[in-house]
Amino acid sequence: MTAIDAAPRAFLTPLFAVAAGVAVANLYYAQPLLGAISASLGLPPAAAGFSMTVMQVGYGVGMLLVVPLGDRFENRGLIVTAFAVAAAALLCAGLARSAPVFLAAAFCCGVAASVAQVIVPFASSLADPGARGRTVGIVMSGLLLGQMLARPFASLIADAFGWRAIFLLSSGLVALMALALARFVPGLPAQGGFRYRQLFTSMRHLFMSNPMLRWRAFVQFFLFGAFTLFWTAVPMHLMGPAFGLSQAGVAVFALVGVLGAGVAPLVGRAADRGFARLGAIVALSASGAAFLFGLPGTGGGLWALALLLVAATLIDCGVAASLIISQRAVLALGDAARSRLNGLFFFIFYSGGAVGSAVGAWAFVTGGWPLVCAIGLAMALMATLIHATSPKGLRP
Asked: Which candidate, 35, 379, 79, 19, places its Cα nearest to that of 228?
């Protein structure tokens, strides 16, 4: 009996989904708390989004330095080690008394969180070829659920116990997850064949020789930039004079993000059945429409809040669906390089997120909600333009 047989796939896939969600949630706890964190640590309002930017940059660095190691080293050990580092970094973030210490811890959190993108291709490689879209969809559903629930969960905890509590609580949760992964995930032989330096020199070749990777990554760069722009600015808008919501109110609003996680397995299954191209068009359209619905939400009132909820639903579902379709296409390019391909893809993806996070706070402070919507719409249209001008054979 093999290691994989001993740990049934029916059990491993949900475990990987939970692990991916726990890992990536650490990137988003700070997003609805930027005002409280910046005030506590002495950051100016226009630089409030810098905490998120540092985490996204750390995640991008992890994509280049950590994720490729999945093609060289035994995946279970790599994943457990990253979770241990994340637990320590979260503890430091929760105890930080100055901006430099918090930002350094946030950067380390981002680097360690990148292990989620070792988990996804690892799960894909264990699945039957005909079910890989479904498997990626389930694991990504867990990842997206962690991403979406992180914001309301952080808001609720901060409302009751202060912003530091969420980082301390997450540190313990991540440590427990590390123990569970060490206990239940099979230790498979490392693929080997590459020295550490060769892994990174090979990544340039992979990037240049795979146009599918390049086209899909840059579509997602702009879409995820629009996503993080929206979710960086909208808590500031909701807690401002137009709506006057509390952290708990923002938490309830952010629960709409769960819908984005819910579409992931459905989109993966549809892509396996040949509907990837149609799904990509619908996803791009929904992402752009989000900012058209969001623009009238500038003023307060029930209708404005309802339109913002529609906008949040569209941006969450659109970006999640487009991501699943693009990632499925990238992972199909080859098992031997799956971690490096995934790392390159998500390095570009989260670079867009870092840009969106930085621009979101600045745009809201500078031009208010209308400027946020204008920039978000421009980013969604750029993603659509890249998709529309890509060669037909490179569209999912």
From this structure: 379
Q: How many domains does the chain have?
A: 1
Q: What residues contact residue 379 under an 8 Å CB cut-off, 6+ apart? A: 222, 223, 225, 226, 229, 356
Q: How far is CA 222 from CA 97, 119, 322, 350, in A?
A: 34, 24, 11, 10
Q: Given CA atoms 282, 285, 287, 292 in this order, what sign does their dihedral have?
A: negative
3-state secondary structure of 195: coil
Interatomic CA distance for residues 228 and 166, integer angstroms: 20
The answer to whether 255 touches 150, Cβ cutoff 8 Å, is: no
How many helices (H) and strands (E) the chain has is answered by 16, 0
**Are 360 and 373 spatial neighbours (Cβ–Cβ below 8 Å)?**
no
- Give per-residue pLDDT as tens, 207-239: 888 888 999 999 999 999 999 999 989 988 998
362 is in which domain, residue-wise? 3-184+191-394
Tokens (6 digits) for 205: 């070749």
Any idea what the CATH number is for the domain that residue 55 is in?
A: 1.20.1250.20
The whole-angstrom separation of Cα 267 and Cα 272 is 9
Sign of CA dihedral 280, 283, 284, 285: positive
CA atoms of 10 and 111, how far apart (whole Å) = 29
Q: Are 344 and 213 in contact (CB under 8 A)?
A: yes
> Quick one: tokens of 223?
């879409």
Task: Give this prediction's pTM.
Answer: 0.76
AA letter at 145: L
